[in-house]
Amino acid sequence: MNKEYYAPATTLTPMSRMTNLVCFFFSLMLIPSCRDQSTLCEGTPHTGSADTPQQCAECHPREYADWVDSDHAWAARPPSSLLDAPAFCAQEFHSHGDQLTFRSDPSGRFVVQTSWHDTPLPVVAAVGRQPLVQYIVPGERGAQQVLSSAWDPQLKNWFDVFADDERLKAEGTALRHLGDWGHTTGRGMTWNSQCAACHMTGYHKGYNRFTDTYNSTYEQMGVTCIACHPAAAPDPIDACTAGRYTRVLSPQLASAVCASCHARAEVFDDHFRPGNCFEDHYRLELPVAPGVFYANGMQRDEVFCETGFRLSRMGAAGVTCMDCHDPHTGKTILPWEDNSLCLRCHAIQKEVNGKKAPFSAGAPEGTCDRTSIGGRCVECHMPESTYMARDPRRDHSLNIPDPQLSREIDVPNACTMCHRNRSNEWAAQVLAQAIPHQIVEQRRPRIRAVHAAMQGHADPSDLLNALRNEDVPAWRATLLEHLSRCPLTPSIQQAAQDAAVDADALVRAAAASIPGPHVADLLHDPVRSVRHAAAWCMLQNTPQLLPGSAAMSELQNAAEFRADQPGGTMMLATLAQAAGNTHEAELQYRRAIDQDPASPVPYMDYALLLARQNRLTDALQQLLTCTKVVPQNAEAQYRLALVLSELRLYHAALTALNRALQADPHHEHAQAAKSSLLQFIKNSH
Hints:
It is a single chain. The protein is α+β, with helices and mostly antiparallel strands. The chain is 43% helix and 9% strand. Helix 25 crosses helix 26, helix 27 (566-578) runs antiparallel to helix 28 (582-595) and helix 31 runs antiparallel to helix 32 (650-663). The N and C termini lie far apart (76 Å).
């Protein structure tokens, strides 16, 4: 396990060569022709050779045969009459108020007739194979849009990947109607920005923020050989035969290739290539914002694998993706159904980087029968959650189930996720007899501290205590990010100063988000995500970054790359403010509102800019619009109350504060403001 990763050598006997040749020719029939449906290149220019995987197969038939039937190979493909015809036989589907008809036009092309577009939209590509297939249609200004309606090849019916939106809508987090960011026509479903980089090889977004247009390019559809083995010469075959693929990647750099797609992260650019440092191109999302992860690191929203695995003790010890997964098939290297994958290390306490794997022979005595489904290691430590309505995915945080914490706070446990008719009390009693108390107890203070912080009630002392006792870098980074949202104290600043020299870039980046003398030093860190965090901290707290400085240029480049989405546009607004260009800042705030009119953040930040210019009436208008869009947002109501108070509309301000506290009874600033306002009104009379 603890070895550098090499691409497997191809040493074949005559019989195995014959077997792989059969697989090779069969695979050529499986992969749809690039000319099938003749819509492959519509809207997205193709700049590379579509035949490169087949060229690689001439010398690497075994690896090709493994890859060709993998999910990577089918990550994106042209529409195929062989594969997709059942989905387009004049079927109708109703979703989020839209009526869609899936059929073929007279020329045989697959098209979608929608209630939002006068003419049928041609299908330009298909995404995936099992358990669902999504389809891409042309959008506006060079964009391509992913339909939220998906086809189930097993059940042979259409469904919506946001089928659970009724639950999300009740929470106020999901809007999918025409005009919303998350609708098929919205920026949340724009293939160029949200999906293509991980489903295509050699993809470049090509967004122009001044014209709001895309000129996207790619080398090959799907995740092909050169996505992980980039050519060092113009012709991949020449590069390979010349020995230019022989660079050895460390396990961490090899796993960074996986993480570049299997992570929920802020993206700085689209220049990542195998061998690069992950943190030079991405900022990994950690369990900080509510609704994304649970406080114990388990997946909640669609977060993929990387964060959870880094939060695990396996990830911290140096276990990597390819210790469990074959890089070409994507499948596990040993079966997990009989626990052989896990027990190959845990049954013999194999060492990884000097750390022994904890001993396990399977499910502890007194829990599930080892021969049952519940006796599988993954059922307890990697429970499944379903995303996109029909896509079950295993959690990679490798938590130990803790029903006691499920009783206290909002974290799930694998026991009651499986035994849905049982209570947390029952599960806690069973596990108390099977698992030593200290194993779960040592994690609880950290989980409780993170949960409180996620709910907006952070206790700095609890976070600092958890930080002192934490040895997993990703958790240290998480705790520091929560501390950065607390009032600055000498203890917090000292913790950040200590973390600023941590060996892990994730920890240093989190330390850079806390103001202090160390931040200026981190502006020159060798890793971009650390420099990015340091520059952003200085910009917001002690604006000392001059226009044209290296740090400012990096922030500007990242913001411009992401300017097709509201987050990037908001960054541009903040940078313009720092440069003293209020006109440009206003323009960017208005663009962000246009990009996502249902989000409260652009309205609130724009109103703050206006209020600082003493344009209180204009600020009031933005906040009134905001509270109309999101009436249950406590922060929006609180900020509205502040502006109303400045305008001496005290009773209206009191109404807004009452609404804020109705939405969030624990909103401390609203509580204090209401108390002060009531006292002021009383004294005025």
